[in-house]
Every structure is written in structure tokens, then in C-alpha cells.
């Protein structure tokens, strides 16, 4: 079973930061005659936040879908936790500790926060030959997860009444339920208010503090520079840059995205 640091446990061993939780070597993907990705190398360490940027058609979505198990690479190697992995389905990626928070969040508006956290993984209590949903246990665990994320979201709140930031908290809590080691977040701050953006960036900081690796797929330059340790720039299916945030600038990243600068 995949485990990760819980609240109250000792801080993450700094030496572990040198060992990538995810390592891609020469990843390529072709769809017939169309080359979507070409020889992409990438490393993500525990507790590291990596921004993935690029224009539409740059290859970001294809790369994320390969990591998430939606389809296999045409060539190259994926290593997770030090071993080579092959994903036939998204459930295979989830089994090793990879979770994706998609832009639409895939939440059920008519259900509570706790019910959404446990959607498809409900806790049950057996009464002889019968099994009933254990709503009390699910609410208690959801409350713990929201506490770890320092979110004001409450287990019994209905999702349809939540702000964008609260919805993100529910989606992220769901990844913590499975003890994810890598969380990929697709445009989490799109179309929400400035205050809600701050809440979401705070949630990413909480994941980092707990030793979870995060890949932030975003078009929002301020968010990437506010929360990420490194930024990876994709263009036309190739990785054009992989730099520490402190060693680059929004202007340079913009140049790389648009092609004004070829590589860095």
C-alpha cells in the first residue's frame, strides 16, 4: 500500500529530495503520422512543485495523459519510485500513487463534500448479510483531510454551494485519501476569483509540506512563479526548458512558449 507523510509525523527526509518519485526517459508519442511528443525527459522529486507550461498543442496534455495511464507512450521509459512501470489504464497509475485533478474536477454537485471525497471508495458497515454506507466514518475522515489542507470546507457542505477554492479542496482531499505521491493539477486556478486563487495556491503548499510531488499545468504565469520550484516549458511536442524558478523569469518563459527563444 502506498503511504506518505501524515500530519504530526517527522518532516520529510531531505535526502529523499534527491531521488525522483517520477522519472521520464525519452518519452515519445505518435498518433499515426502525427508526432505529439519527442524524446521528453523529466524528473519530479518528492515535495517538489513543477510547473508545466506551453501553448495549446505543445504536448502538455499528451504528456499528462501518458503519466496518468490514459494511453501508453510509443517509446521511452516511465519510472516511478525507482522502478519501471507500464500503465494500461488510469487505475494502474492510481494504484502506484499518481492522481490527477482535472480542470472540471469531476465532482457531483448534488452530493456533500465528504460523499465526493469517498465517491467510488465509500466506507461501509456490515450488518449480517447487509452493508450500509458509513456516513459518520466518511465525514470524520474528510474532516481530518480538510484539516490537513487547512481548508474551511466542511464534510456536510453541498458541493453546489461551494466556491471554486472549496471545490479544489474537495478534489485534492480525494487524492490524499488514496495517499498519492504525485498529484497533477490541470489549470486549477482558471476562472476563479483572486481570493480563491490564493486558497488553491495554499492547498498546493500544503501538499508540498506533506512531501507530495505536484505537477501544475497552467497558463497563469503569476501562479507558476508563486508556488513552483521549477518550470518546464513544452513547445511542439518537445521540452524546450527545465529551469529553477530562481534562474528564469516570466519574460524568458513567455519567449520560450511563443518560440521567440528556442531553448534555455
UniProtKB/TrEMBL annotation:
<keyword id="KW-0067">ATP-binding</keyword>
<dbReference type="InterPro" id="IPR003439">
    <property type="entry name" value="ABC_transporter-like_ATP-bd"/>
</dbReference>
<keyword id="KW-0547">Nucleotide-binding</keyword>
<dbReference type="InterPro" id="IPR050107">
    <property type="entry name" value="ABC_carbohydrate_import_ATPase"/>
</dbReference>
<dbReference type="GO" id="GO:0016887">
    <property type="term" value="F:ATP hydrolysis activity"/>
</dbReference>
<dbReference type="Pfam" id="PF00005">
    <property type="entry name" value="ABC_tran"/>
</dbReference>
<comment type="function">
    <text>Involved in beta-(1--&gt;2)glucan export. Transmembrane domains (TMD) form a pore in the inner membrane and the ATP-binding domain (NBD) is responsible for energy generation.</text>
</comment>
<dbReference type="InterPro" id="IPR027417">
    <property type="entry name" value="P-loop_NTPase"/>
</dbReference>
<keyword id="KW-0378">Hydrolase</keyword>
<dbReference type="InterPro" id="IPR003593">
    <property type="entry name" value="AAA+_ATPase"/>
</dbReference>
<protein>
    <submittedName>
        <fullName>Ribose import ATP-binding protein RbsA</fullName>
        <ecNumber>3.6.3.17</ecNumber>
    </submittedName>
</protein>
<dbReference type="GO" id="GO:0005524">
    <property type="term" value="F:ATP binding"/>
</dbReference>
<feature type="domain" description="ABC transporter">
    <location>
        <begin position="22"/>
        <end position="261"/>
    </location>
</feature>
